[in-house]
Fold this sequence. Notes:
Blueprint lengths: L9 H20 L2 H11 L3 E5 L8 E5 L2 E5 L6 H12 L4 E6 L5 H4 L2 H7 L1 E2 L1 E5 L7 H13 L2 E5 L4 E4 L2 E7 L12 E6 L2 E5 L5 H9 L8 E3 L11 H7 L3 E4 L12 H9 L3 E4 H4 L1 E5 L4 E5 L7
Parallel strand pairs: 3-4, 4-5, 4-6, 6-7, 11-12, 12-13, 13-14
Antiparallel strand pairs: 1-2, 1-15, 2-3, 8-9, 9-10, 10-11, 15-16
Helix pairs in contact: 3-5, 5-6
Amino acid sequence: xxxxxxxxxxxxxxxxxxxxxxxxxxxxxxxxxxxxxxxxxxxxxxxxxxxxxxxxxxxxxxxxxxxxxxxxxxxxxxxxxxxxxxxxxxxxxxxxxxxxxxxxxxxxxxxxxxxxxxxxxxxxxxxxxxxxxxxxxxxxxxxxxxxxxxxxxxxxxxxxxxxxxxxxxxxxxxxxxxxxxxxxxxxxxxxxxxxxxxxxxxxxxxxxxxxxxxxxxxxxxxxxxxxxxxxxxxxxxxxxxxxxxxxxxxxxxxxxxxxxxxxxxxxxxxxxxxxxxxxxxxxxxxxxxxxxxxxxxx
Length: 298
C-alpha cells in the first residue's frame, strides 16, 4: 500500500501564488506596506549613553543598530577608554561624530576612534578655527580614512532614524569654550541639550536671541563649572535631569558647588559620570539606568 500523500494540484499552487502577488501589489499601491514599515521603524527605540571616560565628554546615541557620537573623549588613556566603551556597546560603524569645540577633552579621543572604527562623517562648527593644530590633525586623519567633514551652521539638522540633532548656536569667540557648537537632540520621547563648554555669557546671548526652549535632559556645560548654568538659563531649559561629565577626584573640583546648588534648588535630578558611571537613557519608555564602570569595558 502506498501511504504517501499525493502532491497538491500544481495549477492550484500557481493560482494561490498569483493571488498573493496581486494582494501585495494592491496593498503597496494603497500605501499600506509603507505604513506598516513606518510603524515598525518608529517602534524602534533610541538609547542615549553618557559614557564614563574620565575628565572628558563623550555621548553615544544608538538608533536601531546605528550609532552617533557627540564629542569623543580625551587623548591618550581616555581615548582608549572610548574605544573599549564603543566595542562593549557593539559599535562597528559610526554614522557621525559632532565635535563641539577644539579642546582635547572633547575631541582628543577622535584619532583613536578613527583608527579603530569606520566613521562616515565628522561635524564641526562652520566658524571653528581652521588654523588650530588639533583641527589640522583631525583633517589629516579624516583624509587618510576618507571620512567626510561637514561644517554646521545654526538651524542645520542631522537625522538618524528617529533621532534628530539640531544646531542651536555656533558662536564665534576668542575663548574656545565659548566657541562651542550648541546642539539640541530629539530622540523619540526625550529631548537633550548639549552645550559643549559654553559659559553663562553665551547662555544669556542665546536667551536674548530666543533660541532656548525646554529640554528633558541637560548636559552640564563645561563639566558643571561655576560659570555655567546661570539661573535664567536653567529656568528657561527647565530640565528634569542634568548629566555632568567629570573624572573622579578631578583637579578642577567639577562639578562646582555653586553649580550643584543651582541644580538642586530647582529639584533637578543630577548624575555625574564620576559617581554613577555610564548614564543611560532609554528614550522610548523615558527611563534612566546607571551602569557602574565594568571591568569588561574599563
